[in-house]
Amino acid sequence: MNATTQPLVAHARTTVYFTAALAALAGLMFGLDVGVISGAQQFIQHDFAIDDRAIEHIVSSMMLGAAIGAALAAWLSGHFGRKRSLILSATLFVIGSVLCAAAWSPDSLIGARLVLGLAIGVAAFTAPLYLAEIAPEDRRGAMISTYQLMITIGIFLAFLSDTAFSYSESWRWMLGIIALPGALFLLGVLSLPESPRWLLMRGRRDEARMVLGRLRGDAAVVTREIAAIEDQLRMPQQGWQLFLQNRHFRRSVALGIALQVVQQLTGINVVMYYAPRIFADMGYATSASMWFTAIVGLTNVLATFIAIGFVDRIGRKPILYAGFVVMAVGLGVVGLLMHLGMATQVERLLAVGMLLVFVIGFAFSAGPLVWTLCSEIQPLKGRDFGIGVSTVTNWVGTMIVGATFLTLLNRFGHANTFWLYAGFNAVFLLFTWALVPETKGVTLEHIEQKLMDGASLRDIGR
Ligand code: BGC
Predict the structure, then answer these.
(1) Distance from the alpha carbon of residue 390 to the mean position of ligand 1, in angstroms
(2) Ligand 1: distance of its center to the CA of 367 in Å?
(3) Whole-prediction pTM value?
(4) Which CATH code, of 1.10.287.600, 3.40.50.720, 1.20.1250.20, 3.30.70.20, is assigned to 5-192+235-459?
(5) pLDDT tens across 52-78, in order?
């Protein structure tokens, strides 16, 4: 780099950060929509006079939509481009939020949340892909972690906004207000450049060169990067064929599925989607339940920084072991306190504290690390397919947890339900030991080589 390119490069850095921040707003939208229903459901239940089963359907219809959206997103973003997929997602965010606020019956609310789910599913697949494709090499990890962080911030903001609206019991405002950030996101996305990698996939070399020029500011870097992308594109994605033909690829796809099932069976979304209900069942009044939920959201944000700080230093497996121990203990004690019945204020506060301990355990381990691992274990030729399958699994898992929690509570009681999830977390220690590879500090090429050579899954990072 010489003195004349320096200001250009500095300007390009600003452009790339601005672009990334806009795309990362998809994470914020995602989080807002995950978080918003927990505080709204008690008022919806009251207004529509519906039972717990109907609430489970309202909560989980969004997750069904997200699973479908994630499954469609690979095709959409390949066919129409990353930018147009994000525009579609942002539009659906706005429409879905308005429809939720206007819902006239439980069924119409289920339909509206299905639309929102489609928006989230498309965003959940496309935004990280887009971020990875526009990020300079030395900032890629940080940009993807930022996206994860935005999700937790979105959840927290939704919890806060729900708390504010809970005083007037206005669930329509809770659900509808999200159309505003949705509209801002839509405006932002309209100004995004298309991904250079996608443009090259379509043979639109001049446009790709122009976009990369704006994002890098240095002609030599642009030429080098275009050559590298074209080199990669010579190896076309062939996920489905590879899946049918190659036993080793089937193993990594299965590991991606297992990791996401494990992440969901930790029970995290029991808390994310039902926290005010859990606090109410502990004996707290509405406003205390709402504030505790906001604290849950803040804790989730803050503990995510622990993962970002340590994942490349300590490694994946030690962090996962620690996380599962903390989660099992946290939920185990919550179950115990529920079993004994919380007669005193101290016992009730202890239960809240242990639920927070559980959330911390998740946010520094399985939360971010499962996503990291899922993107690291797939061979290049099958990456889009492998990551697509694990993303869909995440949402199917969330749906199952969301659609069964209240039923479990009503049928087996609070203590047994929390012990069930505590037990899962204990079992996942074994899963981590037996099947999870340590991928800290090894190149993706090395992981791929070991996988394809038939090394056992836990050894593909050695
Ligand atoms: C999980 C979501 C969860 C969120 C909570 C993510 O890693 O995939 O299901 O709602 O963490 O922060």
Answers:
(1) 13
(2) 6
(3) 0.90
(4) 1.20.1250.20
(5) 999 999 999 999 999 999 999 988 988
